[in-house]
Amino acid sequence: MKTLFVLALAIAPLAACVPAAGGGTSQPSPSATAPLLRLEDRREYDPAVFQAALTSPSAPLRRRAALAAGRIRDPRSIAPLGALLNDPDTAVAATAAFALGQIGDSAAVPLLVPLADPARIVAAPTVVGEAAYALGKIRHPQARAALERLLTDAPREGPGVREAVGMALLAIWRQGRPTPVDAIAPWLRSADPELRWRAAYALARRAEPRATAALFPHVADADPLVRSFAARGLTGPMADSSGIGRTAAQQALVRIIMQDSAYEPRINALRSLGTLPRAQTLAVLTAVAMEPRNEHEAIAAIESMQRLGAEAASSAAFLASIAQSAARPVFVRQTALAALADVDSTWAAGVARMLETSPEWRLRAAAVRALVEAEGPSNNRLMTFVADPDPRIGAAAIEQALTVAGDSVSRVSALLIAGLAHRDAIVRTNALGGLARLADPATLPAVFDAYQRAQTDTLNDAALAAVDAVAAIDKKQPGAAARFLARFPRSGDYLVRQRVNAAWGDTLTAAWGAPLPIETNRSPADYERMAAVERRGIRRATIVTNRGDIQLELFAGDAPQTVNSFLSLATAGFFDGQEWPRVVPNFVIQGGDPRGDTSGGPGYVIRDELNRNLYLRGALGMALSGPDTGGSQWFVTHSPQPHLDATYTVFGRVVSGMEVAERLLPGDRIIRIRENR
Known about the structure:
This protein is of the alpha+beta class. It is 53% helix and 7% strand. Helix 11 (193-205) runs parallel beside helix 13 (224-232) and helix 21 (345-355) runs antiparallel to helix 22 (361-375).
């Protein structure tokens, strides 16, 4: 995920052409697309190339050029993209609107506002919808006003309403507070459940009293997604301020937890219940954690106890029993120990001492965190924890020591300096993060040495963290940055160059040159092969896990680099036997990390390929640590997650096996992933 080298893609042999997921049935020829792919990959805008492609007689090429312009995000493309908003091909116009939203410049607002017009819905619903979504991404008074008008004046049903209004509902929350409840709430009464859940999401996304009051009657909606978002908004503080009252809120949440047949509302209700500290709350959470229908519910219940902190003190014995129970899954035990540390740190320390020698690294890491929490960052065993044979334990120890130290980072300075000598890049990264907070000029030589050592890592995390530490020291004692740039030659990693440029600006970093364009070391023939992969459209693969199979449809037409990287790693057996490193119930399962702690990667990065596909239930996305940092880690969404749209690359979807995704836990295994041929 956070990686150093750029991938030289091994392009697989071509198969029969299949329609692309998001772009109609015809694709431009590889020779026409290749120059755009090269510029997109380099994050470079060439006006001549784009002018030719954006004005091409070929509608598929115009659409593809608009998508590339949105990925590059150069403001010079605003005018030519604006000219495409009235393209006779609605796929071209909609993609141009999407691209303007990606650029995010207020100069696009006057171009987009006329398209967010209810009168256009029947003729061009996708164009209206993408224009609305683009306006949502550009915070501007005119953008907000246009979205509110569209939601208020659009017909409540009819052709194109779902496509246009549905996108406006996913966009409006991005404009911030106050939420326009009067424009959104009527859509909660729509006959279309797709529009109802989107309206519920828009109201639940930013907690406000009027929004919660509007949502409350819909905890009993016929659609499970509507119920789930209504439950999400029903927190204790909002129950108070909305006039609903905590008793009514608690009763509604308990009813969902005990009686609802759907996964999504039960998980969200368990989370919201954790904001209502009452005896009945703890009784319900305990009952669910003890005998869950699904271990995801146990996790949500235990995390709600953790959220209650000392107010859940009566549950300490129960949490301790789960943490020590060999009959429960390791991740449930780990979660229980973390909760116990926040509920009763002394009791947690006692349990942790029994688990710190466990053969399960997750339990040892949780034990170390609990011990540091209870005994403070001056714990004389911290050095021992950092020296654990499993570097994931050392990384956890330094991270927790910094959390407990708070503003008193100097208390762990010796630990941080010692961490710089560790063989593991992530341990050194965490230590450098602490030194950045310390910002002590006396540590600058050690930070320089850590950056030098990071040049041999396969991950770039430590190099990036060293730059951050130098930047922090430079603010306290100017001159550190100049010394860094004088000592080290220009980095070959564009992410490091971008970090340096962001920290010190163009003037100081002139010797290193501009971070862009990215030097990809690919030939024109490479890009023609990539374009040929894009023409393949849909590909398919199977994830075989210890809990069952998940069948995937992969969008090679929308994200060719991402799909090709995923399948190349799968064919090479990269994923075989890996643990699932992260599961957040009713959010995502995350895979692809060879370390198992979400810190690993394949040794290269690929660029984001943001597209118009949405993060609905079962979407397959690329995990990131920042823009253009994709590697081997990916995730599947349990439910719609609109806040991820057009921010993380969607490169596929689950076509069967979501019931498996709802059972997986960290520590479960990917047996293998293979392309279906």
